[in-house]
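INTERNAL TRANSFER SHEET
From: sequence group
To: structure group
Subject: Ferric uptake regulation protein

Please process the attached sequence and return the structure record in the designated field. Keep the field labels unchanged so the import script can parse them.
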Amino acid sequence: MADSTIIQRCEAKGLRMTDQRRIVARVIGAADDHPDVEELYARASAVDPKISLATVYRTVKLFEEAGILERLEFGDGRARYEDAERDHHDHLIDVTTGQVIEFIDQEIEDLQEKIAARLGYKLIGHRLELLAVPVAKPSKT
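Return from structure group:
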């Protein structure tokens, strides 16, 4: 999502948008990965060297509580973040490198709906995170 949309959503929720909060919102809006707070701080401080790590932590917490950001846990002990209004997708995490691969698979989406229905529920949301390691390709000898 565009950073202006994040800022607009923050303002619509009544959040006071300081210059430093706007910088964090722009950094998040520009992210095409899943940065943790330390990475967000590095990117924000490149824009404004006066921004503090504490400010970034407080801003991320505020945005998360307001439903602007989604907190993701990939099993590596680091909370990562993405725009809560991004299009739905799932994640495959390479546990050896930490690389996070986003994917959409309609078969998985359909299967989850079927499972919920079979158990007497209507699915209203889900989060799927696959933890994986690369498979060695057989050598051609």
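Handover comment: The chain has a mean pLDDT of 87. Helices lie at 3-12, 19-30, 37-47, 53-65, 106-118.
Transfer complete.
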